[in-house]
## 1
Amino acid sequence: MLVNQFLFLAALLFCIGVYGVIARKNAVLVLMSIELILNAVNLNFVAFALRNGNADGHTFALYIIAIAAAEVGVGLGLVLLIFRNRRTISLDDLSEMKG
Amino acid sequence: MIRSAEALQTLSSGWFLEHAWLIPIVPAIGFFIIILFGKKLPMKGSEIGLLSMLSSLVLAGETAMQWIDRVNSGAEAQFIAPVVRTWNWWQIGGMKFTIGQSIDGLAVIVLVVVAFISTLVQLYSTEYLKGDRRYTHFFAALTLFSAGMLAMVVAEDTILFLLGWEIMGLCSFMLIGHWWEDGANSRAALKAFFTVRTGDMGLLVGVAMLYFASNEWTTEHLGVSGFSIRGISAWALSGEPNSTVILVASVALFIAAIGKSGQFPLHTWLPDAMAGPTPVSSLLHSSTMVVAGVFLVARLYPVFFTGFDILGTGGNFITIIGGITIVIAAALAFVQNDIKKVLAYSTVSQLGYMMLGLGAGAWLPAVFHIFTHAFFKACLFLGAGSISHSASHHSFDMKKDMGGLRKVMPITFTTWVISTLALCGVFPFSGFFSKDEIIDNVGHNGYQLFMIIGLIGAFMTAAYMTRATYLTFFGEARGASAGEHHDEHHDAHAPAHDSHDSHDAHDAHATEHTDHGPHESGWRITLPLVLLAVLALSSGLLNATPFGEKWERIKTWVEPRAEVVMETAPGGPGHSNVLSIPTAAEEGHHDSPCGSETPEEGVCYAPQLQHAPFKWSKAMLSLGIVFLGIALSWLFSTLLYTRKDKRLVGLTERNGVLRAGCNLLINKYYLDALYENVIVKAIAGPIAAAAYWFNQNVLDGILHAVARASRAFSGWVYRNIDQRVVDGTVNNSGKATKGAGGVLAPVQSGKVSQYGALLFSAAAVAALVLVIINS
Amino acid sequence: MIHSVIAAATEWVSPQVDYHALAPEIILATGLCVVLLADLFLDESRKWIISSLTGFTLLGAMLPVLTLGLSESSVRSMFDGRYVVDEFSVVMKAMFLIAGYVVVLLSTKHVEEDEYWQGEYWFLLLSSILGMVMMTSSRDLVSIFVALEFLSIPAYMLAAWRKRDIKSNEAGMKYFLLGVFASAVMLYGMSLLFGAANSTLLVDLGKSITATGGLSALHALGIVFVIVGFAFKVSAVPFHSWAPDTYEGAPSPITAFLSVASKAAGFVALVTLLFVAFPQASGVWQPFMWVLSVLTMTVGNVVALRQTNIVRMMAYSSISQGGFVLMPLAVAGMSEVSASALRSVVVYMLVYAATNLGMFAVIIAVSRKTRSGEISSWGGLFSYAPGLATLATIFLASLAGIPPLGGWIGKFTAFQSLLSSGSGWGYALALIGAVNSVVAFGYYGTIMREMWMKPVPDGDTTRVVVPGSLALALGITCVATLVFGVLPGVATHFGDIARITGAFGG
Amino acid sequence: MEMLRDHNWMLSVGTFLPLLGVLLLLVVPKANEQLIKKVALFTSIATVAVGVWTLFRFDFGNAGTMQFVDEKTWIPLIKSSYYIGLDGISLPLYFLSMVITLLVVIYSLDHIPSPGNPKAFFSLMLVLQTGMAGTFIAQDLILFFVFFELVLLPMYFMIGVWGGENRQYASLKFFLYTMFGSALMLVAFLALFFKTGAESFAIPYLVEHGGALAKNVQIWIFAGMFIGFAVKVPMFPFHTWLPDAHTQAPTQGSVILAAILLKLGTYGFVRIAIPVLPEAAKAWAPYIGGLAVIGIIYGALGCLAQTDMKRLIAFSSVAHMGFVMLGISTLTSFGMTAAMFGMVAHGLITGMLFFVAGSVKERYHTLEIARLGGILKQMPHLGWILGFSCMASLGLPGLAGFWGEFPAILSAYSPAAGLNETVFRVYMVIAALGTVLAAAYLLWLFQRVAFGEPKPEFAGGGHGHDDHAFHDVNKFEWFAWTPLLIAILVFGVVPNLMFKVLDPAVQVVLSGFKG
């Protein structure tokens, strides 16, 4: 059964994504890492759908893709905003407020 | 041996007996009137006080008459039931508390004394305190005091007794501190109240114990609560009580008596109490209030009788305290230069006699001594007041401001001498008949040692009174009595002196009489003196044992007859005619079982006491001792004070032993030092401070510690959870990834990623844990 | 096997739609389109119309909610149980709509006076509310996910609303990144669950757990990840870190909105999941909830103690309040407790919504004068604005849970259901909660002290102008707080009727 | 137990009338102080009028049974109802709270403490009144709890806003202390609720079923209540908030605090803790009694160490409440009735003392005992009133204080069956010692403050004030004080006035011990 490989791949992607989110300081890169995770999720869904012969997985995947697009849109918008205001998109500088 | 009921007479009663409770009520009302309207009245309220006292005197007198009829109406060996009336006062927890009167011989005699002396003293005060700035207050307090004392005397139950007792304490506080502008006065007042209050602790405890110990028995047999004095008495003699309980109770009660009656070692407040105006000293602190303690013992006599097994032993708590008091007080009286202090200590010592008598089973002589002592001691105090008022320019210092007054104040002098002789117990003055009886009976009841003490006391009494008399009335006039003017008085010792000297000076400024030099006082002062002197002279005849049975009227009227009483109905002998069944007459009432063994049926209200047969021989002995005292002291005084004899003057300085003794006396055996400097200072000082410190630092400290801790904790959480853990996780996850990913640039994580790290690591940890525990 | 999938997909039957049940959503949807368009055609001078439009939309949406509440056929299930309108959802819808309305009232002047475009603001607000309203009815992973994103994405933008304000940007960014990250994690969990249960329908998830005879690691992992997603939404410690920054940076009305509505939405989803999907898995989530709730209220409280900025303090306070809401969930697995647990969550959220919105209304009103978020700037408020100070006191006291103000009944029901469990864990948690509720007064008290007992910092005692809309908001919230407190029967009644269909298989 | 339900509207009216006054006050403009005062005054007068009417309607014949009972659904879900009633125990305290509030309002008419703002001050006072009265009539634990807590905030603000220099610390301390106590108390209530089968919060119901609980369960629940109530009383280890609160509070605050608030705790013991959990009460009694006597001695020592008049009076409260708790701890109807009487007496007397202290402070601007003196000389009336109150406070027979103190001591001699007699007799003796110390510190205070010559700094009127700074008791003070003074005297002479009301009720409360 070749489902498991998909799952492993997904898991790997997930971990890379998480690592990216944690370790990257560039907002855009973090955004990309999150996309990675989402794709891992999609992969999972499709794979499970395939294994169980249940179309819901595909549907879910489609929803995710659509909404992910929206998210990225918003995200980039915000990045743009920040870049306008402070000429950098490094997340480290985003520490006006703490405590 | 029970005789049939036919032989019993019904006891007579009368309106005044039935309404004796009015006696305290009248002055109580008088008090309120004075407080509320006194200032507006023409005589500033004194007339109300006088009036109310007069009316209670009349009431008391009538009551006494009717009581005597009552006694006479009874059979020779019949228990004369007291006239009892009770009302429900309050009830809680299913127990009923009554308030009411119980009039018997003891009550009657004390009622008369108190009412009488109060009246005289009020009359006296109208002159003595004329123009005082708190004239009205003074009379209010005086009247309230009388109300309290009378209430205590008529009390049927311990609660009312306690109430009167405390009211007296309050009034004594107010009256001693009457001239409170002077710190010394208010201190004396505080001391008096506080010392007495310390004793009252015993009263509270004692009353409580007696209540719970006796309540069952009394309700069952007499249908009265354990607060009823009759009930307690009967219970005490019923052979019922457990000996330790009743012993502890009587000790507790006696402590209260010690406090109130200025017995050793709590006597120290009484001399200081002389800081009050002289009328107060003569009323409260000699003749009436201070005998309250004695009265307590006499009132609850069966309790003490059983508790201390009075007839059984040759010495007990009461006699010991009484004996000590007699001697030490008398000794103190020697070194006083303040005439009032001499009298104060003499009072203490006389109270010692009464206690001794009671402790030794000489109930009647003791009570009789209350009676006689009241007259001559009041007279002496008023005399002293009269001197300071009219002759010595408000000083009480015998050495500085008196002397040779016998010519200028004949009345005062005569009355004084009469009372002094009475006090010394010279035949046929009243003191003889009471004091000598005490000494006699004490010996007769097997307390030989204490009889000797009594005789020594008599000797000393005679001696110091002679000294005082000499200093005051004989020799040449000194100081103020010689017409000199000096307002500031200095005294070698005891600042309390100064204090009250300056007080009486207070009302000197207040009063507007502007005569110079000594003179006799006005009638409002001398009249009481004369009346009292007459009584001091004659009152002894009311119970003149030497003249045989029929002279012993007080004995007949006052002493409760120790007969077994069959209670007809619960409610007790309160009903004025009680069916009582005396034991067989032919055996006389001397072997009535009361006190000695428990009556097989019926109850006793009084123990059977012995009476010493009077012997002139013994009387002569004691009289001899007295005269010896007078003679020696007279000689000594003339030598020392008038002749200034080399051998005597300054003897105390020269002879070490004497000096030591003198200092001991001057410092009042250092008892005050012990109380004030050691005990009081310790409690008010270090101990209280320690407790307070504990409060502020330990208890509050804990609180603050908690507060501080939580604040610190919040800081810690903030620093560690919000900051370090975050950073930590990041760094660790960074390291982890570095370890895994191999060659990676060192992690520079920004805040957001830190948050992310936290978020994910928490999730991961949770997942891990839960997955493990669930599979 | 791909063809099997196709085959499965081909048998398509169009679902019947209960328009009455969907009416609120539909009205909102049309409303937000209208708002969007109106923004295009209205010139600056008449922009205020938009805000009132928004308000009316929300009130309009209330009507069908009311009719639904009154209609006898209580449960309306659609799309074979993926979208259910039951009492629970009706009550919650009502709450979201009213809360939304209050937020609109808070925003009107605030947004007008800001130098930013208005139209989008209202549009975004409406759509976020729509997402919440949908969340209440979602009974399927997909619909939950969609609703979640629907309410979150506009919220991200609203947080960053004040474009040229760095703080606002930062708030939006942090909120966004972490939000998306959280939902990504959640999605991963969902995917696992789907794999385990082979269905996205919540009820089936529950069934699958029993069917497969106990929990598989897959289930456990999935459940935890999903819960994490919503724990983030309710800003439960340790998933709270975004909240303070975002709250501080976002415009105050939005902060109010986030701290009340979106938190509530998170709880709605959480409750639905726990009660409908994982009742059998209580072994997994009960301890998790226990730890979460202890951490949340404790950390929230103690950190709040040291705040100097009032909004930030309110942020931490709302975190710890979340902890109290979580309390009963820690024992909700037991069948005899579950009902009261659900009830107490609902009651608490109702009361909390009223109180917290009220508090923020006061904060907004006061900041109109003080122009500062520092607590010290509230000094002597009572002397020159007694009305506001009193209201603030009422709301704070209610948050602290002092009778007879709303807050106490919330805490009370929480304690009640905890103790009714009779389990040691329950008692322990109750005690911790009790202690925390005392600690909480520490910081609520500091604000009160500032208002009542401190002098006015800069001696400036110009009276605070409270615009009508704000006053109305204050009135509504204050009345609600008092009524809930004095007649708790009202609140508990709603809590009582709010039953979730399919909860615990019942 | 049968109930009398006629005229049951009266309690609700009497309790919530003050709130009506508050509403009126809210609409009165802040500037119009006269009107504000009028409104407050009339409200409290009306309240007292209702109270008096209640007294008339009250069937003293069976004071043991709940009267004016009213039961309305309130929170059906948690089986808690608006259930109120009045019996012999509640009546005196209920009425006392009304009267005290009225007197305090009268006193405030010309004594608004800084920083002024009578509107807020009176509003708080009236809210306070509702809370206090409500606590005494509540027959449902939750209702009781709500009223119990309702008292907190107003008092917190009264201390914190109108108090002395150190007010903020004191107010917060007061608040957190009480809050802590009541939090545990609430938990205890809930535990009780569930242990008795989650049927009802009604006290009568719980009295019926509470006794059936296992002993250790009872003990734990009692512990919760104990802390809650003991903090309020306050009993020995939990008392440290009291001196601060009293010292810092404005006169009115201190009076209300002393006269009513402290009674909430003791009332809680008598009404709830003991009847509901008899077993636990038996187990706890010796310790309560122990703490009580410690409190007596300890409070007295604290008094002796004070240099501030008000603080001294505050500490004396600790001692006096010690007597009350001693009476309660005997678990005999005798002791409890005494304790109930003691509560009222202490309310009257200590309230009076705080009034006097307030007026002294107002005139001398200090309460340092060392700086005071000769008050009798400068203001005889004030001085004598102080003396009277001191005498009453040290338990002089014939004044109210005595009947709270003496029977309490008496009752300790024979505690309820099952309690160790020896222990309680020791307590009795210690308590008796306490009365001596009481005499010591009160008279000492009186002697230092009232006797002697005024200190030079005040001799001429003090603080450069001209002499009218030392006007004697003025008419507002007379109006506010006379009722108290009369009550102290009357209850001292005719204690049965109250005993006959309390006694049957206490019997009922303790009926659980008979079985």
## 2
Amino acid sequence: MSDYLQNFCPVHSKPQREDDLKKTFATLAILGMMPGLALAQAPNFDDPAEFGKQREQLAASFNGPADQRYLQYAGDAMVDTAQFKKEGPWTVCFSNAGVNNPWRVVGYTDMTEEVKLHPEIGTFTHVDAEGSDDKQIADIDDLLAGGNCDALIVSPYSTAALTPAVEKACAAGLPVIVFDRGVTTDCPVTFVHPVGGYGFGIQAADHIIANVPAGGKVLMLRILPGVDVLETRASGARNMFKDAGLTILGEEFTDGDNAKTKSIVEDYLQRGAIDAVWMDAGATAVAAVEAFEDSGFDVPVVPGEDQQDYLQKWRDLGFKGVAPTYPTYQWRTAIVAAVNTLKGEQVPGPEWVLPQPVITEDVLDQYINEKMPPLHYAMCGCEDMPGYPEAWGGSK
Amino acid sequence: MSGTPVIEMRNITKSFPGVKALRGVSFACGRGEVHALCGENGAGKSTLIKILSGVYKPNEGEVLIDGNVQHFTHPQHALLAGISVIYQEFSLLPERTVAQNLFLGREPRKNGLIDNRAMVEETRRVLGLFGVRHKIEPDTLVADLDVASQQMVEIAKAISLNAKVIVMDEPTAALNESECEVLFSLVDQLRASGTAIIYITHRMREVTRLADRVTVIKDGEATASFDHVPAPEVIVRAMVGRDIAEFYPEPAKPEDIGRTVLKVEKGSNYALREIDLELRAGEIVGFAGLQGAGRTALAMAIFGAVPFTGGAITFDGRSRTFSNPRDAIRAGIGMLSGDRKASGLVLMQSVRDNGMLTSRSFANAVGSAAANQFVDQAGMTALLDEMRVKAPSYDQEMRFLSGGNQQKAIVARWLALKPKLLIFIEPTRGIDVDAKASIYHLMRDLARAGTAVMMVSSDLPEILGASDRILVMREGTIVGEFDRSASEADLMLAATGEVEGAAA
Amino acid sequence: MNPAFAEPTGYMNYLKRVGALAILSAGALYVIVSGGFDLSVGSLMTLTVIGSSMLASNDPNSTYWIIPLMLGIGAVVGLINELVVSNLKVPSLIATLGMMISLNGVAFMWSGGAPRGYLPDTFRFFGRYNIPDVPLIGILPVAVICLAAFGLVLWWGMHRTNYGRMLHAVGDNPQAARLAGVPVKSVRISAFVISSLTAVLAGVILGGRAGVSVDIGSGFELQAITAAVIGGAQLLGGRGSVPATIAGALALEAIFTLLNLLGLAQPIRLVVQGLILIGAVAFATYQRKRVGR
Amino acid sequence: MTDTSLATPRRRFRFDRNASAILLIAAVLIYLGLVLALGQTRFLTLENVIAILTRSITLGITAIGQTFAILVASIDLSVASVISAAAVVTSVVMNGNPAMMLPAIAAVLVMGAVIGLINGLVIARLEVNPLIATLGMSLIIQGILSYFYNNFAGNVPAEFQVFAYGTIGVVPYSLIFMFALAGLAWFVLRFTRFGSDIYSVGGNQDAARLAGIKTVRVVVGAHILCSLCAAIAGIYLASRLRSGAPWIGAEGVYDLESIAVVVIGGTVLAGGRGGVWGTMAGVIIFSLIDSIFNVAGVDAFVKQVLRGIIIVAAVAFYAARSQRPVA
């Protein structure tokens, strides 16, 4: 048999093949080392000054109408927009990073409903980058080339990547409103965002620290590494746990995948008790809670987010929950900022910091609405809008 | 011939799993010599050539060029050593032009870039050797050429290499008479210019016309070698090794031949026209013709694989249309395709699965094992035993078997269905001589049992030896009918169109 | 080292976890053996979960008609896949890639981007419920029963029926199969339909286990192919084993779990998966060449 | 019988050779029709045409490389990871320092060539199915990359952003670069022996081997070119995004999209037929589709459904005519 093989692959004699393998592994090793050259470059997601500032802002009182959180703002810095004043009807353009998760879907619905409240907006042009920086840059180019935009709203996919495109739009004389993630230029009229990632981390961590005795064990679940908003949430919480003397069992990435989340929590449960599960976003909170349920354990302290399924689970099981929020009403605020800019009115800026409320057990019932879809974000600030609740998929 | 031969092969031995393809074959060819290499299908000629051209490595023995031992491990080495081969299976790329094919892998370059103009001009020059009647434009896509032209391109490719040695493996299989003549005069020119030519054929006419020396290969051994061209009978006896009479079974007696099983009237499709034929129970009908004459197309049409688009079929006394193989099989027709690997075998499956494939196709899909009347495992085992299929186990994968055993397993596939008409296309291609004889006997046994047998073959001795009646095809239609007493020359003349064959 | 595997409950949890992938891989194997690829299975799982949540509107009795309806949709998807492949002559890689993209879009369109209903407990029963207090093994998850049942059916279909042998023949050499009388088209159609049906079943089980989310099935198509390849299946058809594929799925998940327990991060998992994939195929090729071809 | 049989056959109009042009014309007509029907002639400005062409430069550069892989009857699923790796290495090595521009580019090109070499060897020598080999490679690269980096890392100097954002008049350098690269690829395929060998090996590996072509080298060479193009696409993307992150290749779905545009451009998956201009047509078709969707304001989800259907329909447009069975 062996000489038969030789005849059919006369080119590859054996030692040669081993050589190839060696080469393969050597090159793999080199490949592995190359990115290691500048390992120390990671962006700083552990900024005590920013942490302190956000902690203050969480507790601060906001300016603006008390019953309309989406119009409130921290501080009193305003920008003058007289130069952008224009007669209607306007074309407002919106370059969206994507509508690929429920948070963005709820937010985008907020936005389109808000547009309906402003008859001065003649055309609302929405382009969706489907979660790609490259495509979003091209989309903004398209809008600048043929969009006839009077104002441009950008929800950037990545901060650094979209900066040149936003700069280009500013240079074209357009008023630009940025929200959610920012850009590293101050050329936009304003940057609309809630308090921030540290704040989100603080709210959940405060709750855990208050309800878990010192030395308690915390599992940290995270969606994915590298997203600045999520990294700050984690670093804030991590520091607080250490200071409070809690043990961090581990930090695991779930990809936002329920099945994976469940598996991870089950695996940890096999190894010992868990006193709290901290999460950088609430999408997988219910899966984590179910992992305790299905394994026959009592649900410990599991914070989530303001999604209906979590809020209802929390109420039904009565565990120690808390729901920090990253409110979707900022999508409304972006439209309001654009409209005010085109009217030439003053707009909070260069940053429009919105309040970032936390849902605690006392106010839980206010936010539960069983008529809304399970993944609806309760902190949408949309209950007063004419399209509510149908536009968000709910029923009356 | 004098001095060191250009090419010499010494004691070449080569085995494949289950087959010893070559045993100690020695062979030499000198400058300006045409050396005919004769042998039956499956005798080992092609294996020898593949060793010469660096495709296979011999287990034992050596290849010498101009007296120097060579160790080819890649076809390129053989090419560089001046050996060029015209393979039986075309090695042309259909999506490339004639010129690109001619210079495949050795395009002329100017300043490091392909010199397209030189390529086209050289192509035109080489193709010019075929004369103006056979004009092929260098920038035509090979896919747009007919089979004969493609064969011409293959030949031109070998010539354009200016090789020391040119091997031609049955180069006339697709050529008509005048095209053959062009080729023969080319061979004469090459010989005159000192090229060594190894000419593989089993057509005695060509041996007589061209060869200076003859070597006969049988069962993997060089059984005879002549420094002159002996009488055809001598060569044939050396090739076959026994009396033709023994090799081929007795023909059918008139009383064996029964009712008409298949009748085609005015059958036509893209490749066929005006086909009128009758096949009768108990009779073996041979179909002769050049490649591309429509024999395989006719078989495919009867079998429903590439159906007739015009005309009428009467099968088993009923008017039928077969629009796919399933229709034909259900009616009682079976077909063994010519290219076993490409369209006959499922190589990764077991011998038994290959044998039962058709039975299973007509059984209940979820039915299993012996419970089902169509899928009789025990029956298949018995059938395979009966046919003496040599395999370590019938659960062995098909790809490990020799060609003859593979062919037997496919025959078993059809025998299990007891067909009324069984079509064999090139039934003995790539099969060793012993297995060949048993295939012929098998066909005869089938016929005796009342099956109509249609045999398509390019092997004229086989056609003459195994058939009861011979139909010759040319250009998509039947041009002649002969009985088994016809000569090869009669068939060739009819097949090439020089003379219309007389009805027998 | 790992108590998860030290007691029966741990094993059961592990089998429960891998149930969806194992069933999916065994079904995808049908298409692989027939000589094609089915990249649409992951998105079909997503569609199943999202569609079911949309239709259920929190009504526990809806499960009884939703699952058959979803199976019906799955069958149509499989049928379209095959018709595009055989009638429009689009390679299955591209045809099912297009189907994958489109089905994801359909799932989003249907739900408006976010699912609008819960999966009722009756639906989640298959993926979530454990039968408690079973002797010897502690708990018996319904997903494990499903895995055993569907695995058995798929094994039987592939290895114990005429159909299974024809499927192998079609993948091995479609031309030879056609000339031998195999009804190539219906064999292929059924392979794609079976693949799609198992994707729906896997979706039901996964949705039961994990609940509603928008990209629940993404990545499963490649994992299924990986499992089949680890199980020795021949890409481009002709060879494959249902038990080995299920074992491949179990091995894949076991390796991931193990890496998790060793505290190795996601990146390492990717590298390991890549090496296993190449290694398994290279080894199989080497083996096949060693015994001659 | 006369001498008809060997006469040169008439030149048939070969539909499949012109289909990519037909598709491109169709896409342009649809775009024009839509723009005119909506009365939005502002989309017909030169700026907008350039914006459309510039949309898909990353995809275009990648697809040029993918054309080589597919022509040689292979395929490369690792391009997306290579793009990510190249972008990250570019921005990390440059790290804002203009002096590091050339070393960074050199390092990335070496990396691309090495990855292509490994892909090629695994496919041609170990005879691993190319889908599996490059999928595995993709996972390995992605794993190594995300082990070291989990965010945008480093940044490119402003001088280097000229590559993506600089223009001659209104025409971006990058657009010129892409077409120049396509021209170079065409040149290689048309005028070099290596190019000719690619078609031969892709068309029929056995025939190529019999003709003396070292098929392993050709396959490896095609894969090196493919990975090099992906690496260049990564360099471009780093310039465009100012930095590189380990997910930017995957988020652009450049692996599957590059295969789709190559196939839409008329290169057959089985290899040996097609060319780089068809691929460029495919890329422009994709850009046009995106722009048509944007102009028509198609909902993002409907867009996705349509995109899937368009890919299949475009491939069916050629394939349905072929007689070859597919699987």
